[in-house]
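Notes to self, Phytanoyl-CoA dioxygenase family protein:
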Amino acid sequence: MPSLRQEFRFNDDFTVTPEIKQKFDEYGYIIVRGLLDKEELELITKAIESPDGLQKQRYSLNDPEQRPIDRVIWNHPGNDITGMLARSEKVAGTSEQLMGGEVYHYHSKLMMKEAKTGGRHMWHQDYGYWYHNGCLRPDMMTVFIPVDPCVKANGCLEILPGSHKYGRIEHKFGTILAEADLERVEAIKQQTSLVYVEMDPGDAVFFHCNILHSSGPNNSDLRRWVFLSAYNKATNNPVKKHHHPFYTPLKKVLNDAIRKCTVLTDITGKEFITPGTNSYIIKPPEEQP
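result:
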């Protein structure tokens, strides 16, 4: 895979240096290769594939072409191995260093595009949604960790580097998914270069909530499952009640807690988001409670 200027390699001494912070601020994202080692990746994969755990909360939403994207979304990290991952220094701690202050867990999710059938995500900003949740500032970010190879053929992440600097863009809200103003997106494309973020399992991309991103459909024979955790700065507590948490102190753990965790499928306290039982299905701002 080609090397990118904002690409770094994880090791036991990894920390956010001034160079890494500068790249994140400039491009709106960084890639960290090998964030999870082979053993950690095997444990996480076993946990998320288990029919006794997160898969019980799985549901599907369709893209505009009626192709499904399956997902599981939860608000609190919990004490299982996926919780250890979301609370770890190399995920949550790195997010704090990139954001420049304390963060809390806003939510985590699995996004699952099955081979041949998986749908696409339209161009959007995460803050296109989160702004309407009462988060006043774009002091938020997401960590995207594939458990399968993510390549162009199976609908990898697509990013417009530096697009976070254009601020929040108006989004068109449907019954399920939002899409950024395509006229504005096309204009921004003329000033930057689209990057297909191809990744190996266990790599990670840390990206700002205002970065424009999308992903194509999965027309390949390769499954594409991804684990994501979103974080909000403690100083950006939402001003209205919605389907994700207000500020909740995050109890970070050392990186070896992932490998040491023996609890793979305990979903206690995670507070899952499911259609019909909460406000996950986004409505236009004027229709929000």
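- Residues 18-282 form a domain with the Jelly Rolls fold (CATH 2.60.120.620).
- The radius of gyration is 18 Å.
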